[in-house]
Design brief:
globular; about 10% strand; seven-stranded antiparallel sheet
């Protein structure tokens, strides 16, 4: 699951060696991966993974978002669709890296993904997307029709309720899987780390430990907004009577995603507003399924990724992979003293 969290530099902890980065109004987001966490800022992406030896390996890459490079795309709703596609690609890349590192006891260089691997990876995404559309959009329609519900508003309301129920059951089912339970713990570590930074705490396990695993700008909350907004959008399409009528709804998925993106940004900006809490709370309840309390070792991994992504770099720095060294080995929060594994040129 991923987040987009606005960081107020006024809340940044002092004396950490990251003062230059904290003078900026950073937008920091994250995602749990296999045995690790990926963090992203407007200029860099850092993925930290704990390998079987127990060491934390970090890959830091330069990053320049599509919307940042093409200002004309920074239009409400439109930017949401662009951001989601970009986030999906970055998330898959981070998952591939974490999968390599989590099973290797040796230093693994950041290998360039082959065309065959990329084709397989995106093919998997397409299949997963098709299955999710069938489960969360087409199946609810069929069930609602089978129930004999009439009337545009009532039909779409029942269809939406069934969709939400299926979504919650799906999240609950995958939470029972051992591997996913582990990922959900890292998801909680990611949230705690960002909370610690927002509240000016130290960027270590102790600083993150007291905070909640829930965050208003979580990807789980985004998906809940998708479910709710889809009901409102589909009401205007009426009750579908034919297969083309049903398939037409898929054309509105980008619009729904864009509106949900704007809703999640609004909920993060005004998360403390009483009038917005009823809209935010259901997403937080769902996060009780997709996040779990992490241990200190998982918090250390999340914080290693956060420190790395916040460390200022020269323009055009190269992608590199390195070990995160504990402070007693000479490495503080600035990753310049970390032990390098590999370095390569090119953008993220």
């Amino acid at each position: 699951m991923s987040d987009t969290t606005s960081i107020d530099s006024a809340n940044a902890p002092a004396g950490s060696g990251l003062e230059e980065a904290r003078q900026l109004d950073l937008a920091v987001g994250g995602q749990a991966v296999i045995e690790g966490v990926m963090m992203r800022s407007p200029t860099a992406i850092a993925t930290a993974v704990r390998n079987p030896e127990g060491r934390i390996i970090i890959r830091k890459k330069p990053f320049h978002g599509v919307v940042a490079r093409h200002k004309w795309l920074n239009i409400p709703v439109l930017r949401g669709g662009v951001h989601l596609i970009e986030t999906m690609g970055l998330g898959i890349d981070a998952l591939m890296f974490s999968a390599d590192q989590a099973v290797s006891e040796d230093r693994v260089e950041d290998k360039k993904t082959s065309f065959k691997d990329q084709l397989w990876m995106w093919g998997t995404v397409v299949v997963a997307f098709a299955l999710s559309m069938g489960l969360f959009f087409y199946l609810p329609l069929m069930v609602t029709e089978w129930l004999g519900v009439e009337g545009s508003f009532l039909f779409n309301a029942v269809d939406g309720v069934i969709r939400v129920i299926l979504f919650v059951l799906y999240l609950w089912a995958i939470s029972l899987m051992k591997d996913m339970a582990r990922v959900f713990e890292y998801h909680g570590a990611e949230h705690k780390s960002i909370h610690a930074f927002e509240n000016g705490r130290s960027l270590d396990a102790a600083g993150a430990r007291p905070f909640t695993t829930l965050h208003p700008r979580c990807g789980t909350s985004f998906l809940f907004f998708v479910m709710i907004i889809s009901i409102l959008v589909f009401v205007f399409l009426g009750k579908p009577h034919t297969v083309p009528d049903r398939l037409l709804r898929l054309c509105f998925v980008p619009l729904i995603g864009g509106l949900a993106y704007e809703a999640i940004k609004l909920s993060g900006k005004f998360s403390g507003a009483w009038w917005l809490k009823p809209a935010i709370q259901p997403g937080l309840w769902l996060q009780k399924i997709t996040t779990s309390e992490p241990d200190d070792e998982q918090l250390e991994v999340a914080m290693a990724a956060l420190r790395a992504v916040l460390t200022p770099e020269a323009e055009g720095f190269k992608t590199r992979v390195y070990y995160d060294l504990p402070e007693d080995e000479g490495a503080g929060e600035d990753d310049s003293s970390a032990q390098p594994v590999s370095e390569s040129g090119g953008d993220a």
